[in-house]
Specification:
- The protein is an alpha/beta fold.
- It is built from eight helices and four strands.
- The protein has a two-stranded parallel ribbon.
- Helix 1 (about 5-15) crosses helix 8 and helix 5 (about 85-95) packs across helix 6 (about 100-115).
- The radius of gyration is 15 Å and the shape is globular.
Length: about 150
């Protein structure tokens, strides 16, 4: 929460062709809702997954990520790093989010303690870390991600 996931995912979606061939997959969905969204995402050429604090399918991505691998998808896990202080500032500056300080802290700690490298380790996908505080805006972060060699094969 507050790392820039949604804004950066939207920028990446635009870089890779917009709404006709790119979809954002919300990995925080649970149960049947996640399964339906994942099945829908398999119909797209490009899928940008977004996760905050996840659910059981995000702590065990090997149970479903193979569907994208079997389809021949190129998969890159991107960890967006920022300080807790920055996350608080970003969330407080958003008009649509009324998260409490405790909720922001919990989301931050859950991610760093439980999910940080789960896709690289359990999903066995390539992973990079981007310190979002080094960039002026979300577009710059998205452009940096889009330059990764695995996405330009």
């Amino acid at each position: 929460m507050g790392s820039g996931k949604s804004a950066i995912a939207t920028q990446i979606k635009q870089i890779f062709g917009g709404k006709n061939n790119t979809v954002i997959l919300d990995l925080d969905r649970t149960g049947e809702e996640f399964i339906q969204e994942m099945q829908r995402a398999l119909d797209y050429e490009n899928v940008v997954g977004e996760i905050s604090d996840g659910a059981s399918h995000t702590t065990d991505p090997q149970k479903w990520i193979h569907k994208f691998k079997d389809k021949g998808c190129i998969i890159l896990s991107v960890i967006l790093l920022s300080t807790l202080e920055t996350c608080h500032k970003r969330v407080k500056n958003r008009s649509h989010d009324i998260a409490t300080d405790d909720k922001i802290d919990l989301s931050f700690n859950t991610f760093y303690q439980k999910l940080l490298t789960v896709f690289a380790v359990k999903g066995q996908v390539e992973e990079i870390c981007i310190n979002t505080e080094r960039y002026k805006n979300e577009k710059e972060v998205a452009e940096e991600i889009s330059k990764h060699p695995i996405l330009n094969q």
